[in-house]
Amino acid sequence: MALRKVDSSMVYALDYDPKAKTLEVVFRKGGVVVYHGVPPAEYRNLMKSGSIGSYMRDCIIGMYCESKL
Asked: pTM for the complete prediction?
């Protein structure tokens, strides 16, 4: 996976692997989390959202199994 920097006060960079359905997120305050089972449509919605941080809080964090790196 190749990290992609994003314009967000909460998230520094992220990457998505559609085959594995994993979303890797590097948070600005530190920490890297991989969310498992994230459908491709959810990733597309995240990238199209007006606020990546808000979308993460509302639709990703706590909704998908996660592992910290």
From this structure: 0.93
